[in-house]
Amino acid sequence: MEGLFEVVVFLATATLGAALARKLGLLAPIVLVVAGLVLSFVPGFPHIRLDPDLVLVGILPPLLYVAALETSVPAFRHNLRPILWLAVGLVLFTAAAIGLVLHLLLPMVPFAVCLALGAVLAPPDAVAATAVARRIGLPRRVVTILEGESLLNDATALVLFRVATLAAVGSAVGVTEVTIEVLRSAGGGVLIGALGAFLFGFLHKRISDPLLDNALSLIIPFAVVFVAEEIHASGVMAVVVTGLALGHKLPVLMSAASRLQVGAVWRLVRFLLEGLVFLLVGLQLPDVLQDLDEPVGRVVGVTAAVLGTLFLARFAWLFPVTYLTRLVPSVRRGTARKPAKYPLVIGWAGMRGVVTLAAALALPLTVAGGREYPRELFIWLAFAVIVATLIGQGATLPMVARKLKLPPDDPVQDALSAAGVQQQASRAARERLDELADSAPAPVVERLRRGVEDRTNLAWERLGGAERETPSQAYGRLRQEMIDAEREVFRDARDTGRIPEEVLVRAYRDLDLEESLLRREDDR
Q1: Which residue range is the domain that position 488 belongs to?
Q2: Can you say how many angstroms the Cα of residue 432 is from the centroid of all Cα atoms in its chain?
Q3: How many domains would you assign to the chain?
Q4: Helices 175-182 & 140-168, crossing angle to 10 degrees?
């Protein structure tokens, strides 16, 4: 009962923190981390010591899965080269740089365990980067690259962490062992992910009940990660592959009712889990400080060196990769040259999150021969990096984006493309209606024709300016007033006993669906 109470308190606090962030116009991850830091010293506030398995198996898979579901596979494929340069190349480069700096500062600590911490600190957080990028309205291609990086970089980092940890505790790790580990982890993850996409896609296609579709969707990330971990493959890679494949095929795998319900459920799950993970990071401060038993000067010096290395390594990798690779003719032909502001803003979006702390807590207690090393200092470094990057880079990223004046996506071009495709869709709908017109009364056919015309007109109206009310906006405003009046009549009829509760529920459901169509533009 006490554990359930603590969970409710954490979720309620995360919800209030997110609401406060929206009210103040701030970024929710930053507000929640700061709230966790403050609440960690409040007497009587529930406390939880972060369990690495809880994060890596319980929280990360559903967050990665829903992010993968919503990722555009064509856009992901189009930007695969920069994504891989960041998710694989940058992670390895950053881990090596941090490992080398740590080993130089702490020569008594084996390089292998320094490299393990480098792997822990290297990947930007899957939640923070995309949450901040979308919130401040970065260009679509930048968001796609950051999303793609955050989907894959954890897999790279965790594979490197596993290899470095094996070396640190004295297991023989040569070229053959490393190759086998990489193939088993990455290759096995891709294989499990592909099998998961095939199996669960097959099940989704044969389920017609939205509730069952929802239940299956919530089970998928955990099922995939459990199977992957059982064979020591990358659960992160498996979940991402399954999510990308199912998300791309979702329009033909689920009914409309299932897609609407699954989308709503996952939005809620993501909102609660994202809030929870950032709050939990802040709440770990007392534990991190309590276990830290190092001279203050050493702590400050090593922390500053690691933060500086982490910050500089991202830019030291990004700019050469962005521009030197253009010396290759095939790369130069495939992409247009981007101004320096693009790698600069991508470099600034290097916030770390809860996965970094969870992996740090999984560091071995001792290294080869049973020797001790400053493990508590390493855990502190992970915590300090999370807080510094989230609050420092996360809070300043909107300002940096504004100063750089990155050109936003052209809404007119988006509207023009949408209108052109909508016109093609309307033509296809009219042709299908003409084929079936003899099977229905003429008034019904005419009503359907008007509906097709209205959707086409709405698409073209979005190309107009916002200075005056369009016919569709006027329709939405007046229809909303009519729906409110209808609701009041049904509610009064229920209260006076003229209709039973079931009739009211059905009427409200129909009116709610219609209102959601009127308001769909406000949710974008």
Answers
A1: 484-523
A2: 39
A3: 3
A4: 140
